[in-house]
Amino acid sequence: MRRRPEQVASLLLRAEGWVTAASLADSLGVTPRSVRSYISQLNARSAPRTAVESGPQGYRAERAVLARLRAESESATPQDRVHTLVRELLGADAGVDIHRTASLRHVSEATVESDVARVRDLIAGSGLKLQRSGSRVMLVGDELAQRRLVSQLAHQEMDAGFADIASLRRTVGLKSIDPGAFSPFKQDLTTGLGEQGYYVNELAVSDVILHVAIAADRVTQGRALTGSHVDPTPAQQRVAELLDELTLRHFGTRVGLGDVHHLASLILTRAVIPKGEDLEVGLDPHIESVVRRAVQHAAEEYLVDIYHDDFLRRLSLHVQNLVHRAKEQAWSRNPLTRSLKAAYPMVFEVAVSIASEVGHHLQLSIGDDEIAYIAMHVGGRLERNRRSETVLTATIVCPGYYELHELLRSRIDRSLGASVEVTAVETEMSPDWGALTTDLVLTTVEPPVPDERTVLLPPFLTEADTERIAAAAARRRRARRLARLRAELEHYFDPHAFVRPLQAMSEPEVIRALGAPLIELGVIDADYIDRAIAREAMSSTAFTDALAVPHALKMTAGRTALSVGVAESSLRWGENRVQFVVLVAFSEEDREAFQTIFEQLVEVFNERDSVQRLLRRGTNFTDFLDELTALIDG
What we know:
four-stranded parallel sheet; 6 domains; 15 strands
């Protein structure tokens, strides 16, 4: 399968329903005609079954067929060839011969030479190197570095969407490991770690199990880690003993001390969190101090309530483990990174701020996956404070007859108490409707002029009625958020800071192009642009498949303003492609507006139909602002 059809397959498998050709074309930076060609290629490969269904609404994946087609794709892309070559180099002490490899694969020697160059790029900075003697190429480096390379191959496959065990097993060359052993191994490991007093991070434990399988497979090839490079603590020793037992039981291999101690260290720094304070987990005072300062700064900068002792301890322990992982270049992959960015941009931004401070003081380079884990800590803390901000008030209108109004209130409290708070009950047949000021009006009497707040109910609620109330509450909550956004946007957009068409440029060049009109308006200076570029280098601000929101971490603009760029064809932005770039400059005085604008702007641009409407109709500043306002109004 060629690269473009593979990307189309990934996009369709990620989508929940139909996707238009225009949307796919925007994501890939190609024409709709090219998309149709890629769809035809996919369906030709899956014949007689159909991998992608076509219809008036666009395209939709036949999931079972398309997933199987992608899994069966072998050695079709440069990445596939490189992975195959890496596996051969890892398993050949004497190296591989270029001429023989080209002959066996039925490709030219120039193609193999090109793949060798890609392998050299892949291993740069890993502690491994390629040695060349004539036509023979050899991979040189210690066993631990080679293990990391195998893990890197697996992560690249998972990034491309290959998350099933069979694909991973083939990619990393686990010839001696039975795929059926992974699930029972994971279950027994999770149970054993729980009995030892740990919460297990399910997102990270699968990655650790892959390392265990790699170790078991390498040991069967006579490639064990020699000796133990750690002086195990009692906790590490207990985990090591558990691993020793489980690898023998499930993978049929007894790994040595070097391996079990290394793997135990990985588990303790990646996949578990102590349940109580009694486990021997000592926090480094310097790391704890750095985390406290970083969290305090983020709490003040973004006006979020996260400076709590329990949160600080958990996050400090996480960062301490992160430091250990950094020393071994053993970063944790987070499969939720993409969805966290899109669904919770503000939480992710707070995490970026914390990661920036921590990385600076501890001299660490922290990537998106690790930032996403910090975002999960932040989100967990904020969720405890979110209820009071999202609960809507409601008035019940129910004429007094026995205890009907009390029964109605009781049922609403039980069913919707987490999101709707009844603050008033009217038992008059004809209440003063104009005096009802709550977010919702839940009434058994038809009002003279129903509005978006009103939900007409029978005296005895059914499950369908509670669902209608919940739906009305969700609409009101969204309308309230978007109303705030509309009011803010009218102040912050400027006709001089609207660029269409935005030319294809690198991220720094786009940021400078959008920053230029704000500099002319006296909103920001050149230093703000430099800091926005530095923020972009740390973690991509492409929060949706269509929108990037570059900005600096510190709110130092003279006033808050937004500069908008619209590309006719999508631009590459990090690992994504976008068509809208909004450079945001915030001032200290507008800290409270940051969350409103940031989160809700991302929400609007997360809807594919809204993006297409803005592209079609927002051809100039006035039309763009009119259409955006109309979309916000719903």
